[in-house]
Every structure is written in C-alpha cells, then in structure tokens.
Design a protein that fits this description.
Layout (H helix, E strand, L loop, with lengths): L10 E2 L5 E5 L2 E4 L2 E4 L1 E5 L2 E5 L13 H5 L6 E5 L9 H9 L3 E5 L1 H13 L4 E5 L3
Parallel strand pairs: 7-8, 7-9
Antiparallel strand pairs: 1-6, 2-3, 3-4, 5-6, 5-9
InterPro entries: MTH938-like_sf, NDUFAF3/AAMDC
Pfam family, one: DUF498
Protein name: Mth938-like domain-containing protein
Length: 128
Amino acid sequence: MAKGIIIRDAHFPGRAQIDTYGNGGFRFADMSHKGSLMLLPSGIHGWDVNEGDVLTVASLERILDQAAEIEFLLVGTGKELVRIPNDVKEALRAAGIGSDPMSTGAAVRTYNVMLAEERAVAAVLMAV
C-alpha cells in the first residue's frame, strides 16, 4: 500500500457566492482556491483552463453534462473580454444554455447576483 499525499480534483459540493478573486485564485465558503473555477448547480470544481487559453467544447463537458439544470452560463475570460468561439457557442445553444462572455470580475459580480436570485446559472471563471 502506497503512502503519501493523495491529490484529488478540487470540489466543493454545493453552491456558494464568490467572496473575493485575484492573485490567481478565488475565496468562497471560508475556503480559498488557486486557479480557475467551474461553478455548477452540483458544486464548485477546479477548472484546468487559464487566462489566454482558447475555450473549447471539451473544456465545458461538465457544463454540457448538467445542461438540464442550467439556463445560463457566465464565462469569465480573465482581465479582458474574449469572445466565445462559434463552435462552443453553438454547442451551448444546442444544449439549451444561453451564454455571455465578460471579464472575470464582471462574471463574479453577475454570478453572485444571479445566485442570490436563485436563477439556474453556472459560471466558468478564469483566474486573474
């Protein structure tokens, strides 16, 4: 039996507002996370996409798997607004999910408001 540190995928099993962001990570639910996040109805997950990466359908697989529970996806693209590629936008539309790209800061603020309104929202946030 091997001993040592076991590294698991970052996951918070619930919904929570984002308290702060910056310095390459986020704070929420009295915890901090270094890196990007995917905020879903099923919980908050670490997301292996960084500012400057091109968004792909594969990087949003978890979102598409939970499409029945999501009406709208906020895409925090980092410090600057970056368009969602057409194939990604079409895959989201086909799954019945509206989407809007914006800076990560704007996405955090919008997500917190929509979560407080109990909307069927999800977000992907590239760390800044």
